[in-house]
Amino acid sequence: FRQDGISQPVADIANGPAPDSAAELEAAARARPQDATALQALAEARFDERDFDRAVIAYRQLTVLAPTQASYWSGLGESLVMAAPNTGPAIPVEALAAFRRAISLDAKEPRARYFMAAQRDIDGDHQGAIADWLALLAETPRGPAWEGGLRQTIEDVGRRHNIPVGP
Length: 167
What we know:
The protein has eight helices and no strands. The chain is mostly helical. The longest helix has 14 residues, at about 50-65. The two termini are about 25 Å apart.
């Protein structure tokens, strides 16, 4: 559910080629601590590397730097979900708070909407979760990388709970 940033491309940060390693991205973020683009690139790289604890740190910094950017809050929430130990709730309380914050800033924020629907499913409202996920699909232009996974989730939840989800 990664989204594009809101600022200049990472390649423009140092007027050179885009950093290609997390260490370079971290150096770029340290060199420009007020540049959300550099920090976002670092957060995304840490997430992509499955270094979720460090992605959480970067996303927390982003939410302080740009507290009205919904995608940063949803990135924080997803990173918190992925970093959570398997012994706690599937969606930690802090992650839910981040997703709620994202939706309060942008009611259409897809990642936050996905996880809030997932929480509905966890809470036993399977029909409501499916309805929310179908609405997300209907309101999103076709083609995002996560579309296939979302469709599979809808089918799986529908099948598991005997809820018809389509043709």
